[in-house]
Each structure stands twice: as C-alpha cells, then as structure tokens.
Amino acid sequence: MTKMLVGLGNPGEKYTATKHNMGFMALDLLAEDFGLSFKQDKTFMSEIAETFVNGEKVYLIKPLTFMNESGRAVQPLLAYYNIDPEDLTVIFDDMDSPVGRLRLRQKGKSGGHNGIKSILNHIGTEKFNHVKIGIGRPKGVMSVVNHVLSKFDDEDAQPAQEGLGKAVDAMKTYLDSNDFMKAMNGFNE
C-alpha cells in the first residue's frame, strides 16, 4: 500500500504563510515532525518528500502548478506511483469554516475551491480524503481573492496555527492507524 498526502498552495515567496497555503504549511510541519525535506521534481511539477510509516510508503506532495492547476500535478503522480484515489489525501484551506476549524471527509465536491476543482477534473472522482482547515470569510469589504492571498491578522494567527497542528495530528493518526475514519472521528469539529 502507498499513500499520498497532497498539500495545496501557491509556490513562491510572496505566497508563503498566506491563507491559501494552509496545505503547504501543514505538510511542512508534518515533514518536520518526520525529519523529512522536500526535493523539487520538475517532471511532476511538485516538491516531494517520502518516507515509510508502519511499512507503508508515504509521499508528501506540494504541487508547484499554482492552486488553480493542482490537478495537473496530482493526476500524473497518482498514475506514476499507481496510487488509488482512495489512498489520496488532500489538505487545503476552507473559507466556509471558522479559522482553525478542522473538517475531514472521505469524499466531496469542490465547494468552490479551485484547487479541489482542478483535482476533481483531472482524476475524475471525488472519492479521495479531504482535510479542510478553516480560514474564515473575508472581513469587511475585502474580496475573496485578497482574503485567501493575505496572511492571517493578529486575531486569527493563533487559531490558524492551532488548526495546522490539529491537521498534522490527524494525518499522523491516519498514517499510524491506516484508518481515515479514525482520524475523522478523532479530529472532526
């Protein structure tokens, strides 16, 4: 069995620590816990780290295609490593949840999230694990684009960090138990 964890985000310094990069940030923390470092793979347009957990191969993937084209990186990787979509977990920001709230699902539609929309279009199924980390709705008159591409303000920084920590703990539970439902039951809010 092989598992693939994909964190969604946008590459480049200007997007580091923005709300839309919650998937990248969660995978960075998970890689740090496992003592892994990412290597850029130009063929697959991704940064990739790999390890074994309980004898199972696990790939951590950060697509470098920019959010709206995430599926262009994910689909070829699934095919190359012969990974069933049900062994794919995608970690991403969720504007429909309060900052830091964690929601895990075994399948789902895009909910308007362009990164998920791209993956759905490229792999042709919604039957993959979703880990959504809440980033809240835009405050005041801020546009959705400006909201997701901005960093957390002082009020939201702590809950966002806690959400990332919960996402990492949920992924470790999933990998240790080989049971996404166990992670769902333990971490869904």
SSE layout and pairing:
Layout (H helix, E strand, L loop, with lengths): L1 E6 L14 H13 L4 E3 L4 E8 L2 E8 L6 H11 L7 E7 L7 E4 L8 H10 L5 E6 L9 H5 L5 H24 L2 H8 L2
Parallel strand pairs: 1-4, 1-5, 5-7
Antiparallel strand pairs: 2-3, 3-4, 6-7
What is the element string, with H for helices and E for strands? Answer: EHEEEHEEHEHHH
**Second CATH tier, the architecture:** 3-Layer(aba) Sandwich
Q: What composes the largest sheet?
A: 7 strands, mixed
Proportion of residues in extended strands: 15-25%
Q: What's the total count of β strands?
A: 7
Cα-atom Rg, whole angstroms? 15 Å
Question: Which fold does the CATH topology refer to?
Answer: Rossmann fold
Number of domains: 1
Can you count the helices? 6
Assign the CATH class. Answer: Alpha Beta
CATH level-four homologous superfamily name = Peptidyl-tRNA hydrolase
Shape: globular
Mean of pLDDT: 96
EC number: 3.1.1.29
GO molecular function: peptidyl-tRNA hydrolase activity; tRNA binding
Main location: cytoplasm
Site (Discriminates between blocked and unblocked aminoacyl-tRNA): 10
